[in-house]
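Schema walkthrough. Field components (list of strings):
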Amino acid sequence: MKPKSLPRTIATARHPLQTRRGRLLLAALSLLGAAALWQLPSPAQAQSASAGKAKAASTAAAAPAAAPVQLLAAQSELSFTSRQMGVPVDGRFKRFDAQLSFDPKKPEAGRVAFTIDLGSVALGGPEFEAELAKATWFDSKKQPQASFQSTAIKALGGGRFEIAGKLNIKGQSRDISVPLSLSQAGGVSTASGGFVLKRLEFKIGDGEWADTSMVANDVQVKFKLAFQGIAAL
Amino acid sequence: MTSSNIHSPIQRYSTVAIAFHWLLALAIFGAFGVGLYMADLPFSPFRLKLYNWHKWAGVTILALSALRLLWRLARRPPADLPMPAWQARAAHLTHGLLYLLFFAVPLAGWAYSSAAGFPIVWFGVLPLPDFVPVDKALAENLKLAHKLFAYGLALLVLTHIAAALKHHLLDRDGLLLRMLPARRAS
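Field assembly_structure (string):
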Protein backbone atom coordinates (compact mmCIF):
# COMPACT_ATOMS: atom_id res chain seq x y z
CA MET A 1 0.00 0.00 0.00
CA LYS A 2 2.70 2.47 0.96
CA PRO A 3 4.91 2.36 -2.11
CA LYS A 4 1.83 2.75 -4.34
CA SER A 5 0.39 5.79 -2.56
CA LEU A 6 3.73 7.54 -2.17
CA PRO A 7 4.53 8.30 -5.81
CA ARG A 8 0.93 9.45 -6.39
CA THR A 9 1.09 12.02 -3.64
CA ILE A 10 4.43 13.24 -4.93
CA ALA A 11 3.12 13.46 -8.48
CA THR A 12 -0.10 15.26 -7.54
CA ALA A 13 1.81 17.56 -5.31
CA ARG A 14 4.33 18.56 -7.96
CA HIS A 15 2.48 18.61 -11.32
CA PRO A 16 -1.29 18.26 -11.18
CA LEU A 17 -1.78 19.45 -14.79
CA GLN A 18 1.06 17.41 -16.16
CA THR A 19 -0.36 14.43 -14.48
CA ARG A 20 -3.51 14.78 -16.56
CA ARG A 21 -1.39 15.31 -19.64
CA GLY A 22 0.80 12.51 -18.54
CA ARG A 23 -2.20 10.29 -18.22
CA LEU A 24 -3.43 11.36 -21.64
CA LEU A 25 0.04 10.77 -23.04
CA LEU A 26 0.18 7.43 -21.36
CA ALA A 27 -3.25 6.56 -22.74
CA ALA A 28 -2.19 7.70 -26.22
CA LEU A 29 1.04 5.75 -25.96
CA SER A 30 -0.72 2.63 -24.79
CA LEU A 31 -3.20 3.01 -27.67
CA LEU A 32 -0.29 3.29 -30.07
CA GLY A 33 1.34 0.34 -28.41
CA ALA A 34 -1.86 -1.66 -28.67
CA ALA A 35 -2.15 -0.65 -32.32
CA ALA A 36 1.47 -1.67 -32.89
CA LEU A 37 0.87 -4.96 -31.14
CA TRP A 38 -2.29 -5.41 -33.20
CA GLN A 39 -0.43 -4.69 -36.42
CA LEU A 40 2.69 -6.68 -35.63
CA PRO A 41 1.12 -10.13 -35.74
CA SER A 42 -0.76 -9.37 -38.93
CA PRO A 43 2.29 -9.49 -41.30
CA ALA A 44 3.56 -12.50 -39.38
CA GLN A 45 0.21 -14.19 -39.86
CA ALA A 46 0.22 -13.29 -43.52
CA GLN A 47 3.73 -14.75 -43.89
CA SER A 48 2.93 -17.98 -42.12
CA ALA A 49 -0.26 -18.27 -44.13
CA SER A 50 1.63 -17.87 -47.42
CA ALA A 51 4.29 -20.29 -46.24
CA GLY A 52 1.53 -22.72 -45.46
CA LYS A 53 0.04 -22.33 -48.91
CA ALA A 54 3.29 -22.57 -50.79
CA LYS A 55 6.30 -24.45 -49.48
CA ALA A 56 8.63 -22.19 -51.40
CA ALA A 57 8.26 -18.74 -49.89
CA SER A 58 10.65 -17.41 -52.55
CA THR A 59 7.94 -18.04 -55.14
CA ALA A 60 6.12 -14.97 -53.82
CA ALA A 61 9.32 -12.95 -54.12
CA ALA A 62 9.96 -14.13 -57.68
CA ALA A 63 6.38 -13.49 -58.73
CA PRO A 64 5.04 -10.56 -56.77
CA ALA A 65 2.08 -10.04 -59.11
CA ALA A 66 0.93 -13.63 -59.59
CA ALA A 67 -0.43 -16.02 -57.01
CA PRO A 68 2.24 -18.41 -55.69
CA VAL A 69 2.71 -21.49 -57.84
CA GLN A 70 3.09 -24.65 -55.86
CA LEU A 71 4.77 -27.89 -56.95
CA LEU A 72 2.62 -30.90 -56.01
CA ALA A 73 5.46 -33.21 -55.06
CA ALA A 74 3.30 -36.29 -54.51
CA GLN A 75 1.98 -36.10 -58.07
CA SER A 76 5.35 -35.28 -59.64
CA GLU A 77 8.04 -37.58 -61.03
CA LEU A 78 11.61 -37.06 -62.08
CA SER A 79 13.27 -40.13 -63.56
CA PHE A 80 16.16 -41.06 -65.80
CA THR A 81 17.37 -44.01 -67.84
CA SER A 82 21.04 -44.77 -68.31
CA ARG A 83 22.52 -47.58 -70.39
CA GLN A 84 25.07 -49.96 -68.91
CA MET A 85 26.56 -52.23 -71.60
CA GLY A 86 23.35 -51.77 -73.56
CA VAL A 87 21.13 -52.48 -70.55
CA PRO A 88 18.60 -49.74 -69.76
CA VAL A 89 18.63 -49.00 -66.04
CA ASP A 90 15.93 -46.78 -64.57
CA GLY A 91 16.42 -44.42 -61.66
CA ARG A 92 14.50 -41.55 -60.10
CA PHE A 93 14.85 -38.70 -57.66
CA LYS A 94 12.63 -38.57 -54.61
CA ARG A 95 13.23 -34.94 -53.59
CA PHE A 96 13.17 -31.94 -55.88
CA ASP A 97 11.54 -28.53 -55.87
CA ALA A 98 10.53 -25.89 -58.38
CA GLN A 99 10.02 -22.16 -58.08
CA LEU A 100 8.35 -20.51 -60.99
CA SER A 101 6.47 -17.51 -62.17
CA PHE A 102 4.81 -18.51 -65.35
CA ASP A 103 1.80 -17.33 -67.26
CA PRO A 104 1.11 -19.54 -70.30
CA LYS A 105 -0.16 -16.45 -72.11
CA LYS A 106 3.11 -14.59 -71.52
CA PRO A 107 5.67 -17.40 -71.54
CA GLU A 108 8.61 -15.16 -72.48
CA ALA A 109 8.15 -13.28 -69.18
CA GLY A 110 8.22 -16.51 -67.20
CA ARG A 111 11.00 -17.87 -65.05
CA VAL A 112 11.69 -21.36 -63.82
CA ALA A 113 14.10 -22.46 -61.14
CA PHE A 114 14.49 -26.11 -60.27
CA THR A 115 16.53 -27.87 -57.63
CA ILE A 116 17.19 -31.58 -57.24
CA ASP A 117 18.42 -33.24 -54.09
CA LEU A 118 21.03 -35.61 -55.59
CA GLY A 119 21.18 -37.65 -52.40
CA SER A 120 17.57 -38.67 -52.95
CA VAL A 121 18.38 -40.83 -55.97
CA ALA A 122 16.77 -44.28 -56.13
CA LEU A 123 18.44 -46.81 -58.41
CA GLY A 124 17.62 -50.44 -57.83
CA GLY A 125 19.13 -50.88 -54.39
CA PRO A 126 21.12 -49.35 -51.51
CA GLU A 127 24.47 -50.63 -52.88
CA PHE A 128 23.96 -48.71 -56.14
CA GLU A 129 22.71 -45.61 -54.33
CA ALA A 130 25.80 -45.65 -52.10
CA GLU A 131 27.94 -45.95 -55.24
CA LEU A 132 26.18 -42.99 -56.89
CA ALA A 133 26.85 -40.78 -53.84
CA LYS A 134 30.62 -41.19 -54.38
CA ALA A 135 32.85 -38.47 -55.82
CA THR A 136 33.11 -40.35 -59.15
CA TRP A 137 29.37 -39.98 -59.71
CA PHE A 138 27.21 -37.31 -58.03
CA ASP A 139 29.56 -36.44 -55.15
CA SER A 140 26.34 -35.64 -53.32
CA LYS A 141 27.96 -35.07 -49.92
CA LYS A 142 30.01 -32.16 -51.28
CA GLN A 143 27.54 -30.97 -53.92
CA PRO A 144 24.14 -32.05 -52.62
CA GLN A 145 22.05 -30.18 -55.16
CA ALA A 146 21.70 -29.92 -58.90
CA SER A 147 19.89 -26.86 -60.19
CA PHE A 148 18.31 -25.47 -63.31
CA GLN A 149 17.66 -21.81 -63.97
CA SER A 150 15.73 -20.78 -67.06
CA THR A 151 17.04 -18.06 -69.35
CA ALA A 152 14.30 -18.05 -71.99
CA ILE A 153 10.87 -19.61 -72.36
CA LYS A 154 9.27 -19.92 -75.76
CA ALA A 155 5.77 -21.05 -76.73
CA LEU A 156 5.68 -23.75 -79.42
CA GLY A 157 1.88 -23.78 -79.70
CA GLY A 158 -0.67 -26.35 -78.59
CA GLY A 159 0.33 -26.17 -74.94
CA ARG A 160 3.97 -26.93 -75.76
CA PHE A 161 6.87 -24.83 -74.59
CA GLU A 162 10.62 -24.83 -74.85
CA ILE A 163 12.59 -23.80 -71.82
CA ALA A 164 16.22 -22.87 -72.32
CA GLY A 165 18.43 -22.48 -69.32
CA LYS A 166 21.47 -23.45 -67.36
CA LEU A 167 21.79 -26.83 -65.76
CA ASN A 168 24.24 -27.02 -62.89
CA ILE A 169 25.54 -30.33 -61.58
CA LYS A 170 28.79 -30.98 -59.70
CA GLY A 171 29.95 -27.44 -60.31
CA GLN A 172 29.60 -27.86 -64.08
CA SER A 173 27.20 -25.54 -65.84
CA ARG A 174 25.78 -26.24 -69.30
CA ASP A 175 23.11 -24.68 -71.49
CA ILE A 176 20.26 -27.04 -72.18
CA SER A 177 16.95 -26.77 -73.91
CA VAL A 178 13.97 -28.65 -72.53
CA PRO A 179 10.78 -29.13 -74.52
CA LEU A 180 7.66 -29.82 -72.49
CA SER A 181 3.92 -29.96 -72.86
CA LEU A 182 1.51 -28.49 -70.38
CA SER A 183 -1.88 -29.98 -69.69
CA GLN A 184 -4.44 -28.66 -67.23
CA ALA A 185 -7.23 -30.41 -65.37
CA GLY A 186 -9.05 -29.52 -62.17
CA GLY A 187 -6.77 -26.62 -61.30
CA VAL A 188 -3.66 -28.77 -61.66
CA SER A 189 -1.17 -28.05 -64.45
CA THR A 190 1.05 -30.94 -65.46
CA ALA A 191 4.29 -30.31 -67.31
CA SER A 192 5.69 -33.41 -69.04
CA GLY A 193 8.85 -33.64 -71.03
CA GLY A 194 12.38 -34.84 -71.15
CA PHE A 195 15.82 -34.25 -72.54
CA VAL A 196 19.07 -36.06 -73.12
CA LEU A 197 21.79 -35.29 -70.63
CA LYS A 198 25.42 -35.91 -71.59
CA ARG A 199 26.71 -37.31 -68.32
CA LEU A 200 30.40 -36.62 -69.06
CA GLU A 201 29.72 -32.88 -69.45
CA PHE A 202 28.91 -32.91 -65.74
CA LYS A 203 31.62 -35.44 -64.77
CA ILE A 204 28.98 -37.95 -63.71
CA GLY A 205 30.89 -41.21 -63.86
CA ASP A 206 34.43 -39.91 -63.87
CA GLY A 207 37.74 -41.75 -64.08
CA GLU A 208 37.39 -45.47 -64.76
CA TRP A 209 33.67 -44.96 -65.43
CA ALA A 210 34.27 -42.40 -68.19
CA ASP A 211 34.31 -45.28 -70.73
CA THR A 212 31.07 -44.80 -72.67
CA SER A 213 31.12 -48.40 -73.92
CA MET A 214 30.43 -49.35 -70.29
CA VAL A 215 27.97 -46.58 -69.39
CA ALA A 216 26.57 -44.59 -72.30
CA ASN A 217 27.15 -40.83 -72.34
CA ASP A 218 23.51 -40.16 -73.13
CA VAL A 219 21.16 -40.30 -70.16
CA GLN A 220 17.48 -39.86 -70.93
CA VAL A 221 15.84 -37.62 -68.33
CA LYS A 222 12.06 -37.62 -68.04
CA PHE A 223 9.76 -35.57 -65.86
CA LYS A 224 6.13 -35.11 -65.03
CA LEU A 225 5.63 -32.15 -62.73
CA ALA A 226 2.27 -31.16 -61.27
CA PHE A 227 1.67 -27.56 -60.24
CA GLN A 228 -1.09 -25.64 -58.56
CA GLY A 229 -1.57 -21.97 -59.32
CA ILE A 230 -0.52 -21.72 -62.97
CA ALA A 231 -2.92 -19.52 -64.97
CA ALA A 232 -5.10 -21.13 -67.62
CA LEU A 233 -3.58 -21.91 -71.00
CA MET B 1 36.77 -108.62 -70.60
CA THR B 2 38.03 -105.07 -70.29
CA SER B 3 40.48 -105.38 -73.15
CA SER B 4 37.85 -106.98 -75.38
CA ASN B 5 35.55 -104.02 -74.61
CA ILE B 6 38.13 -101.50 -75.66
CA HIS B 7 38.94 -103.37 -78.84
CA SER B 8 35.31 -103.96 -79.73
CA PRO B 9 33.76 -101.11 -81.79
CA ILE B 10 32.77 -98.31 -79.46
CA GLN B 11 29.19 -97.10 -79.60
CA ARG B 12 29.80 -93.38 -79.61
CA TYR B 13 27.39 -90.57 -79.05
CA SER B 14 26.60 -88.66 -82.24
CA THR B 15 29.06 -85.93 -83.24
CA VAL B 16 26.41 -83.28 -82.54
CA ALA B 17 25.76 -84.73 -79.06
CA ILE B 18 29.50 -84.81 -78.37
CA ALA B 19 29.87 -81.19 -79.52
CA PHE B 20 26.95 -80.10 -77.29
CA HIS B 21 28.42 -81.99 -74.33
CA TRP B 22 31.87 -80.42 -74.40
CA LEU B 23 30.75 -76.95 -75.46
CA LEU B 24 28.24 -76.83 -72.62
CA ALA B 25 30.72 -78.33 -70.18
CA LEU B 26 33.11 -75.49 -70.99
CA ALA B 27 30.37 -72.83 -70.82
CA ILE B 28 28.95 -74.13 -67.52
CA PHE B 29 32.39 -74.33 -65.89
CA GLY B 30 33.16 -70.79 -67.08
CA ALA B 31 29.83 -69.30 -66.00
CA PHE B 32 30.02 -71.03 -62.60
CA GLY B 33 33.58 -69.82 -61.98
CA VAL B 34 32.78 -66.24 -63.01
CA GLY B 35 29.59 -66.34 -60.94
CA LEU B 36 31.49 -67.42 -57.83
CA TYR B 37 34.20 -64.81 -58.36
CA MET B 38 32.13 -61.77 -59.32
CA ALA B 39 29.61 -61.82 -56.47
CA ASP B 40 32.01 -60.37 -53.88
CA LEU B 41 33.81 -57.86 -56.11
CA PRO B 42 33.60 -54.15 -55.29
CA PHE B 43 31.64 -51.96 -57.69
CA SER B 44 33.79 -51.33 -60.78
CA PRO B 45 33.59 -51.44 -64.59
CA PHE B 46 35.31 -54.85 -64.39
CA ARG B 47 32.57 -56.18 -62.12
CA LEU B 48 29.88 -54.79 -64.46
CA LYS B 49 31.63 -56.51 -67.39
CA LEU B 50 31.80 -59.85 -65.57
CA TYR B 51 28.13 -59.63 -64.59
CA ASN B 52 27.09 -59.02 -68.17
CA TRP B 53 29.38 -61.72 -69.54
CA HIS B 54 27.97 -64.13 -66.95
CA LYS B 55 24.41 -63.25 -67.99
CA TRP B 56 25.24 -63.61 -71.70
CA ALA B 57 26.88 -66.99 -71.00
CA GLY B 58 23.85 -68.07 -68.95
CA VAL B 59 21.39 -67.24 -71.70
CA THR B 60 23.67 -68.98 -74.24
CA ILE B 61 23.71 -72.09 -72.01
CA LEU B 62 19.92 -71.94 -71.80
CA ALA B 63 19.54 -71.69 -75.59
CA LEU B 64 22.11 -74.43 -76.30
CA SER B 65 20.49 -76.68 -73.68
CA ALA B 66 17.13 -76.29 -75.42
CA LEU B 67 18.69 -77.32 -78.75
CA ARG B 68 20.56 -80.14 -77.01
CA LEU B 69 17.37 -81.45 -75.41
CA LEU B 70 15.63 -81.44 -78.81
CA TRP B 71 18.57 -83.34 -80.30
CA ARG B 72 18.54 -85.78 -77.42
CA LEU B 73 14.79 -86.40 -77.82
CA ALA B 74 15.16 -86.83 -81.59
CA ARG B 75 18.18 -89.15 -81.45
CA ARG B 76 18.43 -91.84 -78.82
CA PRO B 77 21.84 -92.05 -77.15
CA PRO B 78 23.80 -95.34 -77.42
CA ALA B 79 22.76 -98.17 -75.11
CA ASP B 80 24.22 -98.33 -71.58
CA LEU B 81 27.48 -100.20 -71.08
CA PRO B 82 27.12 -103.35 -68.99
CA MET B 83 26.83 -102.27 -65.35
CA PRO B 84 24.77 -103.08 -62.27
CA ALA B 85 21.14 -101.94 -62.59
CA TRP B 86 21.42 -99.48 -59.65
CA GLN B 87 24.34 -97.76 -61.32
CA ALA B 88 22.43 -97.42 -64.58
CA ARG B 89 19.43 -96.02 -62.68
CA ALA B 90 21.67 -93.59 -60.73
CA ALA B 91 23.30 -92.47 -63.99
CA HIS B 92 19.94 -91.82 -65.66
CA LEU B 93 18.66 -89.95 -62.61
CA THR B 94 21.80 -87.79 -62.58
CA HIS B 95 21.43 -87.07 -66.29
CA GLY B 96 17.75 -86.15 -65.80
CA LEU B 97 18.54 -83.79 -62.91
CA LEU B 98 21.44 -82.27 -64.88
CA TYR B 99 19.09 -81.46 -67.74
CA LEU B 100 16.57 -79.98 -65.30
CA LEU B 101 19.22 -77.68 -63.83
CA PHE B 102 20.59 -76.71 -67.27
CA PHE B 103 17.28 -74.86 -67.53
CA ALA B 104 16.55 -74.00 -63.89
CA VAL B 105 19.89 -72.26 -63.17
CA PRO B 106 19.85 -69.79 -66.09
CA LEU B 107 16.08 -69.21 -65.86
CA ALA B 108 16.37 -68.33 -62.14
CA GLY B 109 19.32 -66.06 -62.95
CA TRP B 110 17.43 -64.34 -65.75
CA ALA B 111 14.39 -63.82 -63.51
CA TYR B 112 16.65 -62.53 -60.71
CA SER B 113 18.19 -60.00 -63.06
CA SER B 114 14.75 -58.85 -64.25
CA ALA B 115 13.35 -58.61 -60.70
CA ALA B 116 16.39 -56.58 -59.63
CA GLY B 117 15.59 -54.04 -62.38
CA PHE B 118 18.40 -55.01 -64.76
CA PRO B 119 16.91 -56.53 -67.89
CA ILE B 120 19.28 -58.72 -69.90
CA VAL B 121 20.48 -57.49 -73.28
CA TRP B 122 22.05 -60.55 -74.88
CA PHE B 123 25.59 -59.70 -76.06
CA GLY B 124 24.60 -56.06 -75.59
CA VAL B 125 22.41 -56.30 -78.68
CA LEU B 126 19.26 -58.34 -78.14
CA PRO B 127 16.99 -57.15 -75.30
CA LEU B 128 15.34 -60.14 -73.61
CA PRO B 129 11.83 -59.89 -72.17
CA ASP B 130 11.27 -59.67 -68.42
CA PHE B 131 8.92 -62.41 -67.31
CA VAL B 132 8.81 -61.19 -63.70
CA PRO B 133 8.14 -57.67 -62.39
CA VAL B 134 10.77 -55.47 -60.72
CA ASP B 135 10.43 -56.46 -57.07
CA LYS B 136 13.19 -56.36 -54.45
CA ALA B 137 11.83 -59.15 -52.24
CA LEU B 138 11.26 -61.38 -55.27
CA ALA B 139 14.78 -60.57 -56.49
CA GLU B 140 16.26 -61.74 -53.19
CA ASN B 141 14.35 -65.04 -53.38
CA LEU B 142 15.36 -65.58 -57.00
CA LYS B 143 18.98 -64.82 -56.16
CA LEU B 144 18.89 -67.53 -53.50
CA ALA B 145 17.20 -69.95 -55.92
CA HIS B 146 19.80 -69.21 -58.61
CA LYS B 147 22.59 -69.82 -56.11
CA LEU B 148 21.13 -73.05 -54.70
CA PHE B 149 20.38 -74.41 -58.19
CA ALA B 150 23.93 -73.54 -59.30
CA TYR B 151 25.47 -75.32 -56.28
CA GLY B 152 23.15 -78.26 -56.96
CA LEU B 153 24.34 -78.33 -60.57
CA ALA B 154 27.98 -78.21 -59.43
CA LEU B 155 27.37 -81.14 -57.09
CA LEU B 156 25.72 -83.17 -59.87
CA VAL B 157 28.55 -82.33 -62.30
CA LEU B 158 31.08 -83.57 -59.74
CA THR B 159 29.06 -86.79 -59.30
CA HIS B 160 28.88 -87.16 -63.08
CA ILE B 161 32.66 -86.68 -63.49
CA ALA B 162 33.47 -89.02 -60.60
CA ALA B 163 31.22 -91.75 -62.04
CA ALA B 164 32.68 -91.35 -65.54
CA LEU B 165 36.24 -91.55 -64.21
CA LYS B 166 35.34 -94.56 -62.06
CA HIS B 167 34.03 -96.34 -65.17
CA HIS B 168 36.97 -95.37 -67.30
CA LEU B 169 39.83 -95.79 -64.83
CA LEU B 170 38.60 -98.45 -62.37
CA ASP B 171 36.19 -100.52 -64.48
CA ARG B 172 38.27 -99.84 -67.61
CA ASP B 173 35.15 -100.13 -69.75
CA GLY B 174 36.11 -97.34 -72.17
CA LEU B 175 33.11 -95.25 -71.19
CA LEU B 176 34.85 -91.92 -71.80
CA LEU B 177 35.58 -92.82 -75.42
CA ARG B 178 31.82 -92.76 -76.12
CA MET B 179 31.89 -89.02 -75.53
CA LEU B 180 35.10 -88.36 -77.52
CA PRO B 181 35.26 -87.83 -81.27
CA ALA B 182 36.44 -90.90 -83.24
CA ARG B 183 40.05 -90.79 -84.40
CA ARG B 184 40.65 -91.43 -88.05
CA ALA B 185 43.64 -93.64 -87.19
CA SER B 186 41.50 -96.04 -85.15
